[in-house]
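Protocol step 4 of 6: structure prediction from sequence.
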Amino acid sequence: MSQKPAIPKGTRDFLPSDVFKRNYIFDKIKSVFKLYGFAPIETPSFELSGTLLGKYGEEGDRLIFRILNSGEKMKKADVQALQEENLPRFANSLAEKALRYDLTVPFARFVVQHQNELSFPFKRYQIQPVWRADRPQHGRYQEFYQCDADVVGSDSLLYEIELVQIFDAVLTKLNLPGFTIKINNRKILSGIAEMSGESDRIVDITVAIDKLDKIGEEGVINELRNKSISEIAIEKIKPLFQLQGTNAERIQLMKILLKESEIGMKGIEELEFVLNAIHNLGLERGELEFDVTLARGLNYYTGAIFEVKAHDVKMGSICGGGRYDDLTGLFGLKGLSGVGISFGADRIYDVLNELNLFPADVTGGLSVLFVNFGEKEVTKCLELAAELRKSGIDCEIYPSTAKLQKQMKYANDRGVKYTILLGENELASQTVILKDMISGIQTQVSFTDLIGNIK
């Protein structure tokens, strides 16, 4: 018995109608990226393992898909590491390459490798798939697309302002009725760690805080305890979970809390600059909110951090990003600050589907189908079809002289806008019957007027 075909969990097939919808999302995102001066690049789907490992923290490293060595390279496996039960070292010896986890680290590698060919600040956008060995669930996939925009080579906060505007412009173009752009600053989180007496535990603290919306306050506190964060520190962190008021009121409370922390006050200064600028400029639909519990679990963020959530739908963040002051330093190019954001196209797709926000015509049905009445008629249909295509009108001819009912069913299934009926009588009079498949109205049109009538 043949095995029933299947795909791996966490992946999806996309039918033509789905791909039309996804391209609609990509096109809207690209159009805004271009408006703000970003240029496209692409990088390989897999990188050397050493490029990726160690850049995302312990949790991120566990989610990287590794590619098993093949052929003679398998003989280089570190068997001694296996005997010593050093599984990470053994795994590294089996896999020299890995699928990319995100687009940012490969971008940093790209910048270092091509630094002499780029002009700085360098603004790039990139729309490609990434892979994570995460547990599949609603809105979380093992293969998904990211749509990134990054600026590298400047520490100007003008780019943070620009990226907030890009979030707002893209999601407004996609007709999302409401969404919140959450913003924080990693320096503020460093100040909190310093204030709590746990400066050297900033990663453990931020990883725990970042899970607040998933596991709740008690869950975060338990995780902090499991990480051996002191009870004194936990008591100092707990009030942050209940921070209320407007952005300005929250800023003032944090100024009081972090007044003794130089790095914390620097983070507040940077954050306040962005908040004030956006307040003066305004946003079309988005709401910008200072959320001190926003941490984002990636180790490379050093300044502003962003996350976007859609209203009226149960879904995690649909966008994110932040500033990374020395990511390229990991590859030998020091002092090159960068900031970037990412749109989660797959989650946005799910949100637009759930809220029924895709335009009715986005599925891009076929414009014209020629009905097949026989060899003599099809010869003329081929000529007319060639003329339509030269004029930019997509069309096709039904491949056989099947019953008219069957051909019309095919037209309906394909979402055809017009069918063209060209029989023996029409051939003699050099006309066609042009049928509007939505209204059902049929019009007799001459060969010469056909293109004009369709357009």
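Step 5 (inspection) to follow. Residues 16-35 form the longest helix (20 residues).
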